[in-house]
Design brief:
Shape: globular
Order of helices and strands: EEEHEEHH
Radius of gyration: 19 Å
Largest sheet: 3 strands, antiparallel
Structural class: alpha+beta
Oligomer: single chain
Strand content: 25-35%
Distance between the termini: 38 Å
Number of helices: 3
Number of strands: 5
Length: 154
């Protein structure tokens, strides 16, 4: 639930060997990896990029719902967020603005356990759709890609 940094300090650094899909990721003091499945030509040494995207949304959803319930003293015990990603034909998506080509669909299923009232449960489902990552993914995103000029640093 941490807000994105506003300066240009890298939050994540990804390093890869161009001879494979395997990647090393550094996020502050945390180190982990990514890869593609064998079926896509990788070695399956870690989650693939879409796994991380879904994990980010799932973690944010769970943290946001849990925080809201704790803040309100509600009897929420466990949160399970199950996610999947698919590319679908735009014409098969009634709620999508795009009507041609393909669109990305992320399905999120939320299981909340505890002695919640129907009203508390309904409110937590509303809150789930307002986690920061959900809002980022459903809003306009501006990604700036630029090459680092190595000659300027030598």
């Amino acid at each position: 639930m941490t807000a994105p940094k506003s300066d240009n300090t890298p939050q994540i650094i990804v390093r890869g060997d161009a001879r494979s899909f395997q990647q090393e990721i550094t996020a502050g003091k945390h180190h982990f990896g990514a890869d593609e499945p064998v079926s896509a030509g990788g070695g399956d040494a870690g989650p693939d990029p879409y796994d991380y995207l879904l994990a980010s949304l799932g973690v944010c959803t769970s943290m946001t719902v849990g925080y809201y319930a704790r803040r309100n003293g509600w009897p929420l015990e466990n949160i399970t967020v199950s996610l999947s990603h698919a590319r679908i034909h735009a014409m098969d998506c009634e709620e999508c603005e795009t009507k041609q080509g393909m669109v990305d669909r992320i399905d999120v299923e939320l299981e909340l356990t505890g002695s919640l009232t129907a009203e508390q449960h309904a409110k937590l489902m509303q809150v789930a759709a307002k986690c920061p990552v959900h809002r980022t993914l459903t809003s306009e995103i501006n990604i700036r890609l630029r090459e680092i000029d190595k000659s300027a640093t030598q």
